[in-house]
Every structure is written in C-alpha cells, then in structure tokens.
Amino acid sequence: MLCFSGDGSLMMNIQEMATASENQLDVKIILMNNDALGLVHQQQSLFYKQGVFAATYPGSINFMQIAAGFGLDTCDLNNEADPQAALQAIIRRPGPALIHVRIDAEEKVYPMVPPGAANTEMVGE
To answer: Which fold has domain 2-106?
Structure first.
C-alpha cells in the first residue's frame, strides 16, 4: 500500500508509524516534504493578500530519523544517485517504510477547494 502525505499531514498522524512498525504492515509512506503546512501556505498565498503567516517551520524536521526511531526502513530520494532504482527497491522490500521527497514550498496542489467553499467549487491552476 502506498500512502502519499505532506509533512504537515504526517505530523498530525505520526503515531501511526508505530502501528505500521508493530504490525509490520507493508505500507510505504511517500512523504512530500516542503517544510511547510502546504495547504495553509497555498490558501494564504492564493486567496489572502496579506501574505503567508504561520505556515512554515523555523527549522527542518528530520523525518528520516523519526521514522527510523519507529523501526521503519527509510529512503531519501533526493540523496540517491538513482532515485528510480532506490524507489523500486524500497517498495519491493516487505514491511513499512518512509520514502522522503523534498519539494518546493511554492509548489501548488490542484484541484483545491477555496476557503469557505463547497467541494463542488474546486479551482484548478
């Protein structure tokens, strides 16, 4: 099973790494890390003209070390000579793993629902 998550989302549910490890679940967490609360950052930059507030972290969180502490295998695709081969290898390996991918905080995720809107009012790029 593949679970795509951002760093903000992972921090809200990080204890589930313990569950995955304790039960040796074959779950691969693909962490798209922008060192920010991506949804908050995106909404503030797109819909509010006052700038971005409280959407980024003062430092960088070492998710690889945290995952290893829970007993998960880890792979940092940004530090691999051959990211595709590394990705294939860790996905094939049984058991839980964290696959770390650093992305730019300015990247946007679409479609998205504007603040206060219904899910039928999604906007694209």
So the answer is: Rossmann fold (3.40.50)
